[in-house]
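Re: [ENG-882] Designed sequences occasionally contain unexpected residues at chain ends

Forwarding the minimal case from QA. Structure tokens:
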């Protein structure tokens, strides 16, 4: 994807080892060398917690990027599940930074607020989605901060979201936000703003076919609307996958609150591959 300028020498060394099948009797195997490269890559990832605000709300963000990359690169917004801005979205930000992007996990609730119970999560998310003007203001404030980051090419911005966050990024794209691409994972598609001529972004939706929160009727309405405007989109439904299939904490939360939540490793991996393909197509 994006060239990692400061690691060219190291990667060339690894390629030589691969092609020659060499191993060092004293210093370890090729596998150990690869692990060292991965560790060096991880060490190059910088993270920072930031604050930003609208006229009425202060929010917490988390930015991750690879400081060894000299060139400016695309920025990716990540919107949290209905639980709020937590470690899960921060981990996804770091994964995207490892791919060469600058990623910002944003806060749609304000003050880093998190829900400890589904009733609170439903209340928090409902307040956002029922006031689209406030939601747009919060999303725009985050996007402007990301664009201003020294590592970001401000003309290349995408957004991804999980659950509630997926609905947010789809809604923001439908509202005409200046986004090149959006991806939604285990996301509702019955949105406050449905697809219309203001949509310019490429769109990816990855849902579980066994997710009871995403009804066939809502999917049919969404895809019909997308087709009517000839949108550039892809809708994927993973057989047997339930809600929150990308989150390793889904099983315990599902059991605790008696909800149909379940991690699905295969769907998680495949949907991440779909995201990488979308971003490569959009920015390369």
């Amino acid at each position: 994807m994006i060239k990692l300028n400061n690691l060219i020498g190291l990667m060339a060394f690894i390629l030589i080892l691969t092609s020659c099948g060499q191993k060092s009797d004293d210093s370890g195997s090729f596998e150990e060398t690869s692990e060292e490269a991965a560790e060096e890559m991880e060490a190059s990832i910088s993270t920072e917690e930031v604050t930003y605000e609208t006229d009425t709300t202060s929010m917490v963000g988390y930015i991750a990027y690879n400081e060894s990359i000299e060139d400016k690169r695309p920025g990716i917004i990540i919107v949290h599940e209905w639980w709020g801005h937590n470690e899960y979205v921060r981990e996804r930000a770091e994964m995207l930074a490892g791919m060469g992007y600058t990623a910002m996990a944003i806060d749609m609730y304000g003050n880093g607020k998190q829900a400890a119970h589904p009733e609170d999560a439903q209340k928090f998310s409902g307040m956002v989605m029922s006031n689209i003007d406030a939601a747009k203001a919060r999303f725009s404030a985050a996007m402007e901060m990301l664009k201003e980051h020294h590592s970001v090419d401000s003309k290349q911005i995408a957004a991804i979201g999980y659950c509630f966050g997926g609905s947010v990024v789809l809604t923001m794209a439908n509202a005409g936000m200046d986004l090149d691409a959006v991806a939604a994972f285990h996301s509702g598609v019955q949105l406050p703003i449905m697809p219309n001529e203001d949509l310019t972004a490429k769109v990816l939706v990855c849902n579980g076919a066994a997710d009871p929160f995403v009804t066939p009727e809502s999917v049919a309405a969404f895809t019909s609307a997308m087709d009517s405007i000839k949108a550039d989109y892809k809708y994927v439904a993973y057989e047997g996958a339930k809600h929150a299939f990308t989150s390793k904490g889904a099983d315990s939360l599902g059991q605790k609150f008696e909800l149909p939540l379940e991690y699905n490793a295969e769907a998680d991996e495949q949907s991440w591959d779909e995201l990488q393909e979308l971003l490569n197509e959009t920015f390369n």
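QA comment: On inspection the terminal residues look reasonable. The first helix runs from residue 8 to 20. Proposing we downgrade this to a documentation issue.
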